[in-house]
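Researcher: We plan to redesign the surface later, but first we want a full-length starting point. Tokens attached.
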């Protein structure tokens, strides 16, 4: 029971008690007064009035509760209908509860399914993000690959153009090599004629003996010149396999061959002029290095030009020291001869000394790395004559670190095995070969002599000889190392280390 219904019940109980008391009181008073209504006996009149008063009080009470209390008013006006609706609502409530229970179970299933789908969705989102990142990376790689492909295609086109140019140069050089071979054959025939003339001169007597000796020496020089030309041809064949990186060097070689062929043709045409040349000793021979200079990376154009001029001055001093002299119209002993080059249009162009020097400066600037320039004689030059040279460029890379091993050999220390001879043969053979193969640029100080790559102080050699004499075992390992950090243009300074022989081989 609700609080409102309890209040109404208490209120009705209170009104009922009040009604009984007032009705009784009113009946007694009306009975005492003996009132008569409509001619009815006083007793019945009192009963009627009392009854009417009770009905009035009940009606007033119901009306007051109806006006004051909304719940009572609703119960009075719609009590039966509310009870019917209540029963209907209870039935619907039970149905709704049953349905609610089913919906809650379904809701739990849906919540479980939602959580599972949420986890799947998160997983799919993670996979999507990973695939998206992977796709972005692949797109970046694709763009990079396309850019590299375009660069490679451009480089390929450029390389194809260079290759076509180099093939043209190679064909020209092969034609010149064939011409030089023809000249060599003519020179050999000329040498045979000279031998026949020497035989005739020998029959003329003692008066011509000295001249015959000179002719014989000249014949040997001519044979050596022929051997040098053959060696030069082999060098040109080797350079043909390196056309992409040594185009200018091949052009210089071609100029050198043309100069040599010109000299040989003059010698063939004019025997008397050759006799005059034979009277002069050779000051500078073909292929001799007169000077070199190393240029670090990053030098300005002004410093590079000054370095090239310093190289020419050093080559000039070296040529003067060997007996060469400048021409009447020149101030330097050494000079770079003019050379003919074929342009991309197929036309021939003449490059003078200034053009050659400018090309060297621009190549040094464009290389972006350390280089070394060698000044090398192009032909044999007699005393009192100017020396034609060419400038050769090489990378000046680091070849050896300080203390790095160059070569080693097993040295027999027994006195009858000549340990010092073994050391010298080792230095002049394997050590020199290893250093040249590693990248040291050899110094060709005299034509016909082996090139040099390093030097060792006399004190070091004496100490090495003393160690060889005092070694307690029959054989020791002699290890040659670089005394300092050495670049391609440097003179290789050596230091030595000896270790006892071990059964396992090299220690």
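Model: Full-length starting sequence:
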């Amino acid at each position: 029971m609700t609080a409102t219904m309890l209040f109404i019940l208490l209120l009705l109980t209170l009104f009922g008690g009040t009604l009984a008391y007032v009705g009784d009181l009113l009946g007694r008073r009306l009975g005492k007064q003996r009132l008569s209504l409509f001619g009815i006996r006083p007793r019945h009149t009192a009963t009627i009035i009392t009854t009417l008063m009770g009905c009035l009080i009940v009606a007033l009470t119901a009306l007051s509760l109806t006006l004051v209390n909304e719940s009572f008013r609703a119960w009075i006006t719609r009590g039966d209908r509310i009870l019917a609706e209540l029963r209907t609502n209870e039935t619907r409530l039970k149905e709704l509860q049953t349905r609610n229970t089913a919906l809650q179970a379904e809701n739990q299933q849906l919540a479980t399914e939602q959580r599972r789908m949420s986890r799947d969705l998160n997983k799919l989102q993670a996979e999507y993000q990973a695939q998206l990142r992977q796709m972005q990376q692949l797109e970046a790689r694709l763009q990079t690959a396309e850019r590299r492909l375009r660069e490679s295609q451009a480089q390929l086109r450029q390389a194809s153009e260079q290759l076509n140019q180099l093939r043209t140069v190679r064909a020209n050089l092969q034609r010149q090599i064939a011409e030089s071979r023809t000249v060599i054959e003519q020179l050999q025939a000329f040498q045979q004629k000279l031998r026949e003339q020497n035989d005739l001169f020998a029959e003329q007597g003692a008066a011509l003996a000295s001249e015959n000796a000179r002719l014989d020496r000249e014949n040997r020089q001519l044979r050596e010149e022929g051997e040098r030309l053959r060696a030069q041809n082999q060098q040109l064949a080797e350079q043909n396999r390196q056309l992409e990186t040594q185009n200018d060097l091949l052009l210089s070689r071609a100029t050198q061959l043309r100069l040599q062929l010109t000299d040989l043709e003059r010698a063939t045409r004019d025997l008397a002029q050759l006799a005059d040349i034979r009277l002069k000793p050779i000051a500078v021979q073909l292929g001799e290095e007169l000077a070199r200079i190393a240029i670090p990376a990053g030098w300005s154009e002004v410093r590079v030009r000054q370095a090239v001029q310093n190289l020419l001055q050093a080559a000039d001093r070296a040529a003067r020291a060997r007996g060469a002299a400048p021409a009447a119209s020149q101030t330097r002993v050494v000079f770079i001869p003019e050379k003919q080059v074929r342009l991309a249009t197929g036309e021939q162009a003449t490059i003078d000394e200034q053009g050659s020097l400018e090309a060297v400066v621009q190549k040094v600037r464009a290389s972006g790395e350390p280089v070394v320039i060698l000044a090398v004689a192009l032909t044999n030059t007699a005393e009192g004559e100017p020396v034609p040279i060419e400038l050769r460029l090489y990378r000046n890379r680091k070849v050896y670190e300080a203390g790095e091993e160059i070569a080693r050999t097993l040295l027999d220390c027994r006195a009858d095995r000549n340990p010092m001879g073994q050391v010298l043969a080792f230095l002049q053979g394997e050590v020199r070969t290893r250093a040249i193969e590693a990248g040291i640029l050899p110094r060709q100080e005299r034509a016909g002599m082996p090139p040099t790559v390093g030097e060792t102080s006399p004190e070091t050699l004496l100490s090495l000889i003393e160690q060889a004499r005092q070694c307690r075992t029959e054989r020791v390992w002699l290890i040659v190392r670089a005394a300092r950090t050495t670049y391609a243009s440097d003179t290789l300074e050596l230091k030595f280390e000896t270790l006892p022989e071990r059964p396992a081989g090299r220690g």
